[in-house]
Amino acid sequence: MMQLTIALVAAVFAVAAEAAQPGVPHPHRGKLKPFVPGPPALKLSASDQAKLDAGEMITLQTKDASGVGGRATAVQAVHAPPKYIWKQLLDLDSYVGKVDKLSVCKTYYDQKEGIDGSRRIKAKFLVKAAPGFGFEYYCDHHYSAPKKSLTWTLDYDRDNDFDDVCGHW
Fold it and tell me: How many domains does the chain contain in total?
């Protein structure tokens, strides 16, 4: 069995003041620089590597210069063949129950891109942060099979409760 170390790198710029309106486009086409497919640029300390080797997850959170948004990074070593890990990551509809506070994750677009196994997947997410308080957003995922990565941004063709989001598996 192979070990694959996966890193989730996500950036959330800010939360919008009004509720999402999926029938209208988002007010902009992105404020954050999207991640580039391929291995994420992570530098792990010897201490971080020791934690990974011991089966622990490493998490980091940083605020941006505005103090409103920021970046969250989680790194975990997963002891499973990569094909099983990718099967889980690409099955967005199965995220409910696996992701804390996620009550809805529903794919509304899934198309192959090219002949190399790459895909574009769009999904609706609903996070219940507290009773009566939640966030609705729509993400546009790009799976690059050759570069072994999944990157995403908001689907800017739909309004979202977040001002901007981007991420990388």
Answer: 1
